[in-house]
Structure formats: structure tokens, C-alpha cells
């Protein structure tokens, strides 16, 4: 016990608010040392409100990004305490340390790239969803990657994909490993013929903007837990099971694996927020949705900054009580927690091939460069797991609760004739650093934090972000959009808009048919049986009814996923889709009536209807006798293991569907399933 009390002199000096002793001890003790609870001296200084100690520790380069035993960074604890000068100092130090870490890693990255032979590679991205008809409108993309020396170029048409929102374009991302840091990253817009350098500096106003955002939003921490991750060979066959193999892209012989034990753990804190803050945050989202700005300005046009919070009551905790407490069960030192955590399990599949000419380590070096694109960062995170032997030529991973991404390495070749001009900015392109007021956030590949790309014309995301808690983005003010949102005008897929416009013609879609189609629509989306037989609604043009019904399903699912208000829905249907007022009101009324059901149905993959996750079987042999002489052979006991969303527990639950059949009946069952797949595929193409 004596060792515990005296073993952390820096921490004790902070606890006692002994600035003189702390200054002396910093000359010979490690400023980054952690105590038994995982707290650094800077953690304690922030939680206890020791402002002078904080500044002294920062002068000695105390790490800001490090997490304690409970998974919280120093910056997270500072936001909880609420002292604005302290938060500002930590943000500046965090940026400085991130730049320094990046510069330390840069030579190794450049060296690793130079060791790889020059190549050209194509990756295909397909996004799929279980939500009815949504897969039909999800994007796909073929990314082209060129590598020459320490230079990498990525050509893509999918600029961003985040929370069911994506943006199309024709973008080239160029990394020049031999250039200076502020000149190494360039983004080209090949449509408007402009380019932009990705800068690393932040102005004082940008820093203070980030502090305002941190102090007014939830503290979030999210991570993928791989403690229980395992890779199991995927198998096929109903009777005689065998390991699945697949020829990927027509040339890579691969072994398929199912990934079990992936958990997304997220935690949220809001003890620093008042009820007014929560209301303001809602107003901010609504303002963003309409193209507004979240900042307040005074009469002189200067931004109104958020003040420090009143310090929490000082806790009567002694150093001995703190250090002698059980690990991570110490008395609360700062503001009392208002805390919520959740976890979700995910499944992934992966195809590993020994035929692919690139190694996993080589791929990670390439992905480290192009990780500013968020969907690529998710792929990189997944590949850092300890994979089976080979190269992951095809990966299917969940990137959103309702969306799975399938990434296929469909072409690769080493080349020594890659033109040098691909890695230079074309002479007819002009720099455009100031066109857009909204400043996006580019993911810094080396430390998984965010850097500013000034006024980017290429990745327009109306959000501000700052890293706290986890190693990556943890505080986001997101903008609810339907497909894409530009300024004050909601953009909907043109084909979908055309289908929805059928509502304008009462001779094609009668009021009675419209109401019944809506009732059917929400019944299907909430996992219930259709209320009306759609065959009775057909007029002389059944294809029109089908087309309009499919459009209703798509738009209702999107409204539900984005949790749009009644006013938002009314505005979109009226102004964008030109719905008659009476039909807008009927839609809004039905939506409000089914809002809770939609929320439940859209919570997670597989939450609308149970889906089969595995199959078990056993044989009951029939003994032939005089009483049973017409036996058709053994009976098979089949168990379909399904999972579905449980409304009461708000978790997935497993349920077995059991039946017994002969081998012939089993074959009939399989044929009927194949027939259903065929019909669904045909319907998918029609819609």
C-alpha cells in the first residue's frame, strides 16, 4: 500500500495542487506515466480543475490524446469540467502533437512506399441494404489507384458516403511523398477544373469554433472491440458440409471466412450540457438542414463564444482514498457523470487468396495515404485485424447499421510505365481555396484525427468535428438529409422523383388507391402483412401502380431513417415532389401514426424480419419393420437459426425454426427457395 501511495509523485503533487513540487518533479519523472487507474497527471489536473497544473504539464508536452483505464481522453474530461481556457489549451496542444507524430511517421511511410514496385489497381465498391428497395438506390464505385515511387493517385466518383448520404463527383486525390507536408496532399475536381491543397494550419478563430462545438455537444467515444473476434471457414451444402471457395474477379482462387465477434461499442456523456443546450442542438440541426449556420453573432458581427461552466462542487476525496481504491472504481473527481453506453454486434465475410501479388502490409501503407475518404478508412480499420493467411481480395463489412459495403479487388498489375503527369496538377486547373463557407474535415491518415481542408469544393459535408474520447472522430453535428442536401433545396434521385410525381394525377392514382397504398407501404416497412390486396387497386395500367408503390416505399423508408419532422416531410413532398396538399397531409398523418414502428424496424440490420444466420441438421433413422415397410429413408430434422430485433430488450435475439422432412421434401424446399430468389431478382430489375 505504501508503494501505491508514494509510487506516483507527479499525480500526488497534482492532487495536492502543489505547483512547486510538480515543477521540481517534472525534471526527473515521466510526464506521460499512468497510475493504477490509467490516469496521467494531466488527467487528474483536468478532472480536479487544477488550471495552473494543467498549463505546467502542457509546457512539458504532456500527451493529450492518451486514454485512461475507463477509455476517456484528457480532452473529454476537460469538456466535462467545462473550463474554456483549459479546453482551448488542450485543443492547441492536441493539434501540435498530431502534427509532430505525423512528421515522425512520414519518413517511414515514404520509405515503405518506395519499397513497393509501381502498380495500378482497381477496387469495386458495392453498397447493399436490407431495407426494402433501398439497395436499388445505393451507390457503387470503381476506384482506380496508381502508385509510382512515393506518389499515390486515387480516382473516384464516390466522394463521400456517410450515414446513408453520398456525394458523386469526379475527384482525384494525389499524395506526393517527396513534397513538403503542406504541399503533399492535393485534391482535383476534374469537372470544374480546380484544385485545392490540403493545409495543416488552423486559425485562432477555427480553434475557438471547435471549442464552442466541443462545449455544446455530447462527449462520444466509439471503438470496434475485437477481444472475441474469430474467423471461421464459411461452409456450403445442406447435407455434406464443405468449406466454401470462390474465384474472385475471375482470377483469384479464394477461401471464404465468416468473421464473428465484431462489436461496435459506443459511449455518450452529456453532464456538461443543460436542457437549453439540448434544445439548441436540435435547433442547430434544423438550421443546418435549411442551409443555415450554427454560430451566433453579436451586433458587431463577432461570434458569440461559449463561457466556462460553473465548476462542479469539490469532491472531498483524499489522495489515499483515490489511489487505494479498486482499479477503475475510484471516487468521481470531477462533474458527476450523465452517461449512456451501447454495443452492437456485427458480422463480416472475407475472401482470402494467396494468388494476389500484393501483401497485406503493402496494402495498409497505401490505405494509410488514401484514408481521408471515410469509406476507405473503414476498410483500413478492418484490415488491421489479424486476418487468416493470404490477401483479402473481397471483403463485406457493415459501415452503417443498415448498410453493408462489399469491396472487391478486381484488378491489379505491377507496371513501370505509369505516366508522371498523373501525379501533377494539370496546368489548366486553377486553385480555388475560398469558394465555400462550410469547412469540411479531412481524415489525417497517420493519427486518425481530422485536419482542415479549407473551403473544399469536393467533399461538401455540413458538419464540424473534433476528436475527443476515441482515437477518431467522436463529436459530430450531423445534418439529416434525404439522399443529398444542397443549401435549402432537397435533392431526390431523379427517377424516384419522376415516380413520385404520379401522385399529381388523380386519374392514374385515385384518392382511394393512394390511401390504401400508403397503408400497405407502412405495414410492409414495419414488418406487418399488407392491409389491402394490391391486385384490387390496379386500374388499366398496373405498372403505374407498381412504380408509384415502390417509390412510396423508398421515400417513406428514407424519411423514417432520417427521423424527419412532420414539417420537413410536408415541405419536401410539396416543394420537391409537387404532391397535392391533400395528399401531403394524408402521407404526413400516416407517417406520424407509424413513426415508432419505423424507428424499431430501422434500428439494425435484420431488424425488420428474422433472417437465417446458420443451419443445423440431424438424421432420425427409421427402422424398417413389418409395421413400416414403405419408408422413404431417413427423416431430417432441420433447424434454421434466425435472428431478429426484440422490441422489449432492444437487442437482437436468436430463434430456431424447426421442421422435419424427407430428403425429397428437403429438395423441394430448396427448389422453392431458388424459385423465390429468381422472382425477387426479376422484381428487383423491374423496380
From TrEMBL:
InterPro entries: ANKRD13, ANKRD13_C, Ankyrin_rpt, Ankyrin_rpt-contain_sf, COMM. ANK repeats lie at residues 37-69. It holds the Pfam family COMM_domain. One of its GO terms (biological process) is protein retention in ER lumen. GO terms for molecular function: signaling receptor binding. Residues 611-684 form the COMM domain. Keywords: ANK repeat, Chaperone, Endoplasmic reticulum, Membrane, Repeat. It is found in: Endoplasmic reticulum membrane. It comes from the Eukaryota. Gene3D superfamilies: Ankyrin repeat-containing domain. GO terms for cellular component: endoplasmic reticulum membrane. Acts as a molecular chaperone for G protein-coupled receptors, regulating their biogenesis and exit from the ER. This is COMM domain-containing protein. It comes from Aromia moschata. The lineage of its organism: Eukaryota, Metazoa, Ecdysozoa, Arthropoda, Hexapoda.
Amino acid at each position: 500500500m505504501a508503494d501505491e501511495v508514494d509510487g506516483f509523485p507527479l499525480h500526488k503533487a497534482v492532487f495536492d495542487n502543489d505547483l512547486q513540487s510538480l515543477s521540481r518533479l517534472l525534471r526527473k519523472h515521466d510526464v506521460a506515466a499512468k497510475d493504477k487507474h490509467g490516469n496521467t497527471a494531466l488527467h487528474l489536473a483536468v478532472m480536479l480543475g487544477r488550471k495552473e497544473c494543467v498549463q505546467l504539464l502542457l509546457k512539458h508536452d504532456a500527451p493529450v490524446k492518451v486514454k485512461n483505464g475507463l477509455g476517456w481522453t484528457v480532452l473529454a474530461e476537460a469538456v466535462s469540467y467545462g473550463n474554456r481556457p483549459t479546453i482551448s489549451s488542450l485543443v492547441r496542444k492536441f493539434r501540435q502533437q498530431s502534427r509532430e507524430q505525423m512528421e515522425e511517421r512520414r519518413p517511414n511511410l515514404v520509405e515503405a512506399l518506395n519499397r513497393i514496385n509501381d502498380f495500378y489497381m482497381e477496387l469495386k465498391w458495392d453498397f447493399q441494404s436490407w431495407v426494402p428497395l433501398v439497395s436499388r438506390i445505393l451507390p457503387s464505385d470503381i476506384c482506380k489507384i496508381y502508385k509510382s515511387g512515393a506518389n499515390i493517385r486515387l480516382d473516384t466518383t464516390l466522394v463521400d458516403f456517410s450515414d446513408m448520404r453520398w456525394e458523386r463527383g469526379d475527384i482525384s486525390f494525389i499524395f506526393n511523398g517527396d513534397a513538403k507536408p503542406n504541399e503533399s496532399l492535393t485534391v482535383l475536381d476534374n469537372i470544374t477544373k480546380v484544385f485545392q491543397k490540403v493545409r495543416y494550419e488552423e486559425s485562432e478563430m477555427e480553434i475557438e469554433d471547435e471549442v464552442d462545438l466541443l462545449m455544446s455537444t455530447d462527449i462520444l467515444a466509439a471503438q470496434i472491440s475485437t477481444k472475441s473476434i474469430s474467423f471461421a471457414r464459411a461452409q456450403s451444402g445442406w447435407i455434406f458440409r464443405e468449406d466454401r471457395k470462390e474465384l474472385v474477379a475471375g482470377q483469384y482462387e479464394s477461401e471464404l471466412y465468416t468473421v464473428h465477434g465484431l462489436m461496435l461499442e459506443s459511449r455518450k456523456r452529456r453532464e456538461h450540457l443543460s436542457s437549453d443546450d439540448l434544445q439548441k442542438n436540435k435547433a442547430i440541426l434544423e438550421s443546418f438542414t435549411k442551409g443555415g449556420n450554427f454560430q451566433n453573432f453579436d451586433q458587431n458581427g463577432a461570434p458569440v463564444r461559449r463561457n466556462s461552466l460553473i465548476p462542479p462542487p469539490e469532491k472531498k476525496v483524499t489522495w489515499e482514498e483515490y489511489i487505494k481504491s479498486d482499479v477503475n472504481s475510484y471516487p468521481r473527481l470531477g462533474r458527476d457523470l450523465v452517461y449512456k453506453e451501447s454495443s452492437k454486434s456485427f458480422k463480416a465475410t472475407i475472401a482470402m487468396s494467396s494468388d494476389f501479388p500484393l501483401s497485406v502490409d503493402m496494402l495498409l501503407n497505401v490505405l494509410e495515404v488514401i484514408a481521408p475518404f471515410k469509406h476507405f478508412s473503414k476498410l483500413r480499420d478492418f484490415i488491421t485485424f489479424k486476418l487468416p493467411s493470404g490477401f483479402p481480395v473481397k471483403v463485406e463489412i457493415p459501415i452503417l447499421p443498415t448498410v453493408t459495403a462489399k469491396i472487391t479487388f478486381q484488378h491489379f498489375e505491377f507496371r513501370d510505365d505509369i505516366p508522371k503527369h498523373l501525379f501533377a496538377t494539370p496546368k489548366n486547373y486553377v486553385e480555388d481555396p475560398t469558394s465555400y463557407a462550410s469547412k469540411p474535415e479531412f481524415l489525417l491518415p497517420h493519427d486518425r484525427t481530422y485536419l482542415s481542408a479549407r473551403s473544399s469544393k469536393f467533399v461538401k459535408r455540413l458538419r464540424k468535428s473534433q476528436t475527443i474520447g476515441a482515437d477518431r472522430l467522436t463529436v459530430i453535428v450531423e445534418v439529416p438529409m434525404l439522399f443529398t442536401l444542397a443549401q435549402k433545396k432537397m435533392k431526390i434521385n431523379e427517377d424516384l422523383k419522376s415516380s413520385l410525381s404520379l401522385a399529381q394525377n388523380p386519374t392514374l392514382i385515385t384518392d382511394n388507391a393512394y390511401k390504401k397504398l400508403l397503408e400497405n407501404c407502412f405495414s410492409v416497412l414495419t414488418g406487418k402483412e399488407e392491409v389491402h390486396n394490391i391486385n384490387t387497386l390496379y386500374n388499366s395500367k398496373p405498372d403505374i401502380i407498381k412504380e408509384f408503390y415502390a417509390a412510396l416505399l423508398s421515400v417513406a423508408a428514407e424519411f423514417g431513417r432520417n427521423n424527419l419532422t412532420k414539417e420537413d416531410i410536408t415541405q419536401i413532398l410539396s416543394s420537391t415532389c409537387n404532391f397535392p396538399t391533400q395528399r401531403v397531409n394524408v402521407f404526413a398523418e400516416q407517417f406520424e401514426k407509424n413513426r415508432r414502428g419505423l424507428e424499431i424496424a430501422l434500428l439494425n440490420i435484420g431488424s425488420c424480419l428474422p433472417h437465417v444466420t446458420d443451419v443445423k441438421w440431424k438424421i432420425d433413422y427409421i427402422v424398417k419393420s413389418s409395421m413400416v415397410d414403405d419408408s422413404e429413408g431417413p427423416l431430417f430434422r432441420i433447424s434454421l437459426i434466425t435472428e431478429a430485433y426484440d422490441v422489449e430488450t432492444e437487442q437482437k435475439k436468436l430463434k430456431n425454426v424447426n421442421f422435419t422432412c424427407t430428403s425429397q421434401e428437403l429438395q423441394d424446399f430448396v427448389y422453392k427457395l431458388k424459385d423465390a430468389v429468381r422472382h425477387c431478382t426479376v422484381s428487383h430489375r423491374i423496380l
